[in-house]
Amino acid sequence: MSEAYIVGAGQSPFGSFPDETYRSLFDTAFDRTLESVDGELDTADIEEAFIGTLGVGGRQIGLSGPAVTEHLGLHGIPTTRVENACASSGYSLRSAVAAVKSGMADLVLAGGYEVMTDTSSDHTKWWLGVSGETEWERLSGTTFAGVYAQMASAHMDEYGTTKEDLSRVAVKNHGNGAQNPDAHLGFECSLEDAVNAPDVADPLNLYHCCPTTDGASAVLVASEDVAFDLTDDPIRVAGVGAASGRVGLFQRPSLTSIPATKEAAEQAYEMAGVGPEGLDFAEVHDCFAIAELLAYEDLGFCEPGEAGTLLREGRTDPDGELPVNTSGGLKSKGHPIGATGTGQVVEAFKQLRGKASVQTDDPVRGLTHNVGGSGGGVTVHVFERTSEVEP
Amino acid sequence: MSSRGIAAAGVYVPRGRVTAEDVREAWGAFQGRGIDAKAVPAGDEDAVTMAVAAAGRALENSAMSPNAVDAVAFATTTPPVAEEQLAPRVVQALGLSSETRTWHHGQSTAAGADALETALNAEGTVLAVVADAPVGDPAGSDHAFGAGAAAFLVDDDAAVTFAGVGSATDESPGVRFREAAEEEVASLDITGYERAAIRETTRDAIADLGLDADRIDAASLHQPNGSMPYRIAGEGVVSNGAVAEGTVVDRIGDAGAATAAIGLVAALETGGDESVLAAFYGSGGGAVAFAFEGRLDGDEAATLDDGERVSYVESLRKRGIVVDGDVAGGGANVSLPTWRRTLDSRYALTAGRCPACGALSFPGEGACDDCHERVEFERAPLSSVGTVAARTVIGHGGAPPEFVELQQRDGAYGAALVRLDARDGDGSVLMPAQLTDCDHESVAVGDAVRRTVRRIYEQEGVVRYGAKFTPTE
Fold first, then answer.
1. Which of B389, B395, B445 has its CB closest to that of A201?
2. Residues from chain A contacting residue B329 (CB–CB below 8 Å)
3. Do the domains A4-119+212-235 and A131-211+240-334+355-389 sit in the same CATH topology, yes or no?
4. Which CATH architecture has domain A131-211+240-334+355-389?
5. Minimal CA separation from A58 to chain B, in Å
6. CB contact, 8 Å: A160 with chain B?
7. Angstrom distance (rounded) from CA B345 to CA B362
8. Which of A334, A347, B88, B181 has the most crowded Cβ, counting Cβ within 10 A?
9. Keywords, A to Z (chain A) (predicted)?
10. Catalytic pick among A155, A174, A208, A335
11. What is the chain A residue with the closest CA to B396?
12. DSSP B426
């Protein structure tokens, strides 16, 4: 199977943009993606597109992929809308990589978008719950904050994880996001602020929950021939992993772990030929503070129950041994559902090109981790700098 | 002679209590003579959920299998919908047979008598259930209105035997009525006329029964307030001591058609060697009186004194008097037919057992959660008492829109994953469910909780009922 490379990646600013539409946001993300490509790229060479969106608000439920690619003038190319909730564009990247690796296409666009802040608060709430298990989970009165809060309650009960541990996720990620010009909530917060914020779904408070965000992101995936034509420094997609799990938390064997993350990580590490110790940074899915802690454990950064310690010891800070969410993560950078997965890849691309707002020290390899819902669908990708690994 | 009568009874009174003092403080007066406190139903309670709770207790007290019930006679003046049978909901929630015959009674506070008489005159094992939660003008008639339910398991060879019925009819409108399509129960407040109508017609029904006053040990008389039963009993009709045994309105308020029925349970639990009298008055002008002999074991009346004090403002919120329940439409939806498919799991708490690997899956549909084989599950009943495996409290702003009204009424609510063991002891499953009737913040992982049937939410005018959990302690 041939290799797949990232030759360009870009995102719109993430935030609340009532004057933008999903098309105009995707337009910006696409422009920035093109700008990030070193060589001359003819957009007519883009052969296919995979676009992730949940479709929040019902603004374009059907054909929501072609609705943006045709708008961009990527006329006539096959476009597939990918929907796996918050992991939609993690999966659109996976599809693009598969198209390139199979030899069906040499240059494929993967991306995603979501507009979440321009509807009434009632309407927004209806849409927040749509990716949970509807018949039982939602009708027990929970949206995702509630389900992740339940996981937090179980983790606290089993491992003694504390509210301070949860709050440190916010402190770290806001510290990083404050330096990211594209972040939605680009301000710092203190541990005291985070601990004392008002409750949303006990034990999770406002600082333990990511915002709802408008935004778009895109990535260009190329075959070896095309990639090295466009740049001397393409980023290799070294590992690809994905897995599904029961949509409802109550149907899964663990309340303190996301089995699909473990499975996806195992696949990605095996393909990349490295383990977590081979990573220089990671962008993990921190939709809620507990999710980042679970990610540490499920991705093998530490043993089960040790995530709080890892964070407390600063080992995932920008100057730690494995910086996590240098972009600010979903917490600070924002979480425009369909745009989040490829948005994480934008940060990985920047890190490996030395152009990140919180730049880690000469990284070679990084990981992105994108979770749909409370763990019904997960992608894990490992990216590698070619200029260093394949001189 | 057959000893048909009441084999067992159950009482349910909502947990909330507001005191007459608190109402008086809010309004400067309290229009509920002889009432010290009244029961306040939670936002997820109505006549159906209270009926299920009372009937469940009656079944429990009888130690009878739900399958033994042949019919249900259901009575309420406050049905959650104006037209539609409600007894099928009660039948399903209690896990009774699909062959169960149902009857519905309403229209006045004598509806409970109608249900009881239907059950006594029928054949086989019949549950007579009466539940009510009237509302009125907050400035006046509503002061007295409480809530509650009573259920009677009527059977042959019963502990309490039915010894006769008397009745009287005398047109006297305007005493207590609810106009078509109105929610509030009203009265013309012509005090002398109303008192006389109630007193005389009820006395006539008691006279028709032909019991000597000194043969009545305990009596539950029509009791919209604390003084009316004594007015009826006066002039030697029934002794004050007997009336006191069957008067409950002082502790739960005027629970409509249910008050005299709850009073009857209290009277039957304290009755002596002679007769127990129950006299129901229905405004419009009808009264029915029953005589019973015997005594019920049990302490259902003790639940009348339980409860959790709520403020007057909380009581208005809980009962929806100051809450607008409109919900905007949107994304997540469970269609009514889909909901109906899950009723067995929701009410009876059943999972599926995989015939391939023996593991349990909840709900018992699709592939096995454990071995992932596509199988035809065997129905596996679950215990109705479980343990909290994970929990949260959904605060203001965190609720999905269909639960916003509930939150406005009852405040922040707990949502838990409850671990339920199979009744045969082999394996367990997790069920997502709301908590109710508790201090939600204090419920912790590991706490024991018990199932209760409540309103989950209402969509397109149709109420959906299902299981919620409440701490056993």
1. B395
2. 126
3. yes
4. 3-Layer(aba) Sandwich (3.40)
5. 8
6. no
7. 8
8. A334
9. Isoprene biosynthesis, Transferase
10. A335
11. A200
12. S
At B95, give phi and psi (nearest 5°): 75, 30
Contact status of A187 with chain B (Cβ, < 8 Å) = no
Q: Which residues of B touch A250 (CB under 8 A)?
A: 362, 417, 429-432
Question: Could you give all domains of chain B from N- to C-terminal order, each with its CATH number?
Answer: 5-318 (3.40.47.10), 336-343+382-471 (2.40.50)
Residue-wise pLDDT tens digits, B354-400: 999 999 999 999 999 999 999 999 999 999 999 999 999 998 778 88
- B417–A143: do the CB atoms touch at under 8 Å? no
The answer to whether the Cβ–Cβ distance between A150 and B415 falls below 8 Å is yes
Interacting residues of A267 by C-beta distance below 8 A, sequence separation 6+: A239, A240, A241, A242, A243, A380
Angle between helix axes A259-272 and A289-298 (nearest 10 degrees) is 50
pLDDT at B1 over 70: no
Whether the per-residue pLDDT at A6 is higher than 60: the answer is yes
Contact between chains at A138 and B466 (C-beta distance less than 8 A):
no
Cα–Cα distances (Å) from B7 to B59, B154, B261, in that order, read: 10, 6, 15
Alpha carbons A336 and A324: distance in angstroms, whole number: 19
Task: Mark which residues 264-293 of A lie under 8 Å from B by CB.
Answer: none
Q: How far is CA B151 from the centre of its chain?
A: 8
Contact A142 B338 (CB under 8 A): no
ipTM associated with this complex? 0.91
**What does residue A153 show for φ and ψ, rounded to 5 degrees?**
-60, -40
Please give the residue that has the higher pLDDT: either B334 or B85.
B85
State the pLDDT at residue A369.
98
> Which CATH number is A4-119+212-235 given?
3.40.47.10
Residue A55 in contact with residue A83, Cβ under 8 Å? yes
Q: CB–CB of A200/B395 below 8 Å?
A: yes
Judged on CB neighbours under 10 Å (0-12, 13-18, 19+), B187 is: middle
The closest alpha carbon to A284, from A271, A298, A272, belongs to: A298
Largest CA distance in chain B: 76
Residue A158 sits at the vertex; the CA angle it makes with A152 and A160, to the nearest 5 degrees, is 80
Asked if residues A68 and A38 have their Cβ atoms less than 8 Å apart, the reply is no
Q: State pLDDT tens for residues A48-98.
A: 999 999 998 888 889 999 999 999 999 999 999 999 999 999 999 999 999
**Confidence (pLDDT) at B330:** 54
- How confident is the model at residue B328, as a pLDDT? 57
The confidence score (pLDDT) of residue B76 equals 98
Domain boundaries, chain A: 4-119+212-235, 131-211+240-334+355-389
- Averaged over A248-252, what is the pLDDT? 95
**Are A65 and A50 contacting, i.e. CB atoms less than 8 angstroms apart?**
yes
Catalytic residue status for A335: yes
What are the start-end ranges of the H helices in B357-417?
404-410
Residue pLDDT, tens place only, B92-104: 999 999 999 999 9
> φ and ψ at A44, to 5 degrees?
-70, -15
Residues 201-220 of A with CB under 8 A from B: 201-204
Closest CA to A112 of A172, A68, A173, A166: A68
